[in-house]
Design goal:
alpha+beta; Glutaredoxin; 14 helices; 5 strands
């Protein structure tokens, strides 16, 4: 791609300058031969009706956490998902304009991490671990069972597809996931990133049936179940302010007996790890 005809000066600058700098780029004009259309592509997306004043305030609170605005991108994308249930083009523009990034830079991040969804999600996101150990213990069977249960034998629900209307009560987006870091409790699945351990096809079917009926079964570990948008708001860093509500809505057990069994066995038998040797770093020895 050719260099923009107008290159912004290095350092902090108005985000609009960054986006409009490419207006004279021949590659951009080649994609959109009509100059008016090219300007439309580079202009702000119509996000005002989607992201209200409350969302704007939260965005500014997120940005204020970091010494450099662009460092706030990950929680900003979670904030967008807490509003829309996915990362839309409007959401990408919303982040880019406030963080002095281009739409392409935001898109690169949003498409790299699997937690950012580019299609609207259901009220609940169900993630089934199909990595090696969980797959061997039945994860693949669980995923296939949910595919046909939420879809049909003739048309199983695909990866990141939704049973029901996205965002509506009872709608479920199904995905297979890589390791969910609970190998000692496999096969596992998550609902809105909360754990349901030691699953079977029958347990998984009962779980999604309860979700579709408007119920919120308690996870094996972690916080009480919310919906996908509620989980995204927490991932953006916003929690209940009073202690009682926080404990009720967010806090929960984070460990299982199986996970601590090795440490408990070592404690019972008096096993200890050898102490670390105080060895100077090589670069310090050279000096």
């Amino acid at each position: 791609m050719t260099h923009p005809t107008e290159v912004p000066e290095p350092g902090p600058r108005d985000a609009e300058t960054t986006h409009m700098a490419a207006a004279g780029d021949t590659d951009v004009v080649g994609i959109a031969p009509d100059p008016a259309l090219a300007e439309g592509i580079l202009a702000d997306a119509p996000a005002a009706d989607i992201f209200d004043a409350g969302t704007e305030q939260r965005a500014q609170e997120i940005i204020a956490r970091y010494p450099v605005a662009r460092s706030a991108l990950l929680p900003m994308l979670h904030l967008v998902q807490s509003v829309q249930g996915y990362v839309s083009q409007e959401g990408i523009a919303f982040c880019a304009r406030r963080l002095d990034l281009s739409d392409a830079e935001v898109s690169a991040v949003a498409t790299f991490y699997t937690m950012y969804k580019r299609r609207p999600c259901g009220e609940h996101l169900v993630s089934v671990c199909t990595n090696t150990l969980c797959a061997a213990l039945g994860g693949d069977e669980i995923y296939r069972k949910l595919q046909t249960h939420l879809g049909s034998a003739e048309k199983p629900l695909g990866h990141e597809e939704t049973a029901g209307t996205p965002g509506e009560p009872g709608s479920i987006t199904l995905e297979h996931a890589e390791c969910l870091a609970a190998c000692d409790l496999g096969p596992v699945l998550q609902v809105n990133y909360e754990y349901f351990d030691n699953q079977t096809p029958e347990k998984a079917v009962a779980l999604v049936d309860a979700l579709q009926a408007g119920k919120k079964p308690g996870p094996t570990r972690g916080a009480p179940l919310s919906d996908f948008k509620g989980a995204e708001l927490q991932l953006a860093g916003f929690f209940p302010e009073d202690e009682a509500t926080y404990r009720a809505d967010v806090d929960g057990p984070s460990q299982a007996v199986e996970t601590l069994r090795g440490a408990q066995l070592a404690a019972d038998r008096g096993w200890t790890a050898p102490g670390a040797q105080d060895v100077p770093l090589p670069e310090l020895e050279k000096k």
